[in-house]
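Before a colleague's protein record goes any further, I have to sign it off. What it holds is a sequence and that sequence's fold in token form. Would you go through it and say whether the fold makes sense for this chain? The record follows directly below this note.
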Amino acid sequence: MTVQTKPAADMRAVRLPSDHPPVKAGRIGVLLMNLGTPEGTDYWPMRAYLKEFLSDRRVIETSRWIWWPLLNLIILTTRPGKKGKDYASIWNNERNEGPLKTITRSQTEQLAERLKPLTGERVVFDWAMRYGFPDVKSRIQALLDEGCDRILLVPLYPQYAAPTSATACDHAFRALMEMRWQPAVRVAPPYHDDPVYIRALADSMRRQLATLDFDPEVILCSFHGMPKEYLLKGDPYHCQCAKTWRLLREELGLPKERFMLTFQSRFGPAEWLQPYTDQTVEALAKAGKTSLAIVAPGFSADCLETLEELDVENREIFLENGGQKFAYLPCLNDSEEGMRVITEVVQRELMGWI
């Protein structure tokens, strides 16, 4: 996309009386938002992260009378230890942080570098996590302190869902509710069917498949799951995942039986979106499929659900049930293809402001 902009000298200026205290104004903020990550892998940081995440009414819609004792008396007693070990297996020890934080920071830095020739110093780029740190409220305040009176919120979820996109915006809106002088705000929409996103996914997959020493008999297109009840209440997530899968399959020229749609990461006894990834992996292996690859296009950055659940747990399921060759194809992350998508989305949504 090519965006025409005015020279820096013509940008909107802030004129104040000569005796007015100095203020920063007239700038634009871009805030990339992702899910979150614990601050450490030990019990207490894991408990704090899980408590914030699982207390969110967008994530768990079960009655509080039922959910509160279950969460606080059982889940937060037992789950932090297990999840802490899982996080430790993928932890960025050099930075002492989860990979989602490392990648989101890099995405923001690369975005700023790519758009600086277009925006100059007028646009400020930052990033935040819905759960954990850096938190959304503090980063919005940091943008205001930099003189940003217009802010573009960019939830890094290609497909919209109430437990992801909506809760990220909820968090931002709660921060705005406490401000006497609010900035103007835009929210970037989901981009599940954006041609730039679909082509980037296809390019990334072709590049990665070319490095394998085998040609997968089946490729699973695995999205994070959600309770089926949320779909029945009107959440568009399932439909948007299915459209991404269809468009990507058509772009790659693959038949349905070779490029299959599945859903992962179910939690609790309720029925979730199907077919389930782990059950499909097991069934394929038992049916005699010897080679399998999995891609997770619903994640803009690799995290626990991809690096541990898909590349470790599902690899073990496949190999233990007769499979021979398995590959996990990483997310777009901060790759050239991934940055192409984020840059396109941000440039488009800034139109009229720059």
Notes: Residues 2-11 have pLDDT under 50 and may be disordered. The beta strands are 27-36, 123-131, 148-155, 184-187, 218-224, 259-264, 291-295, 325-329. The longest strand covers residues 27-36.
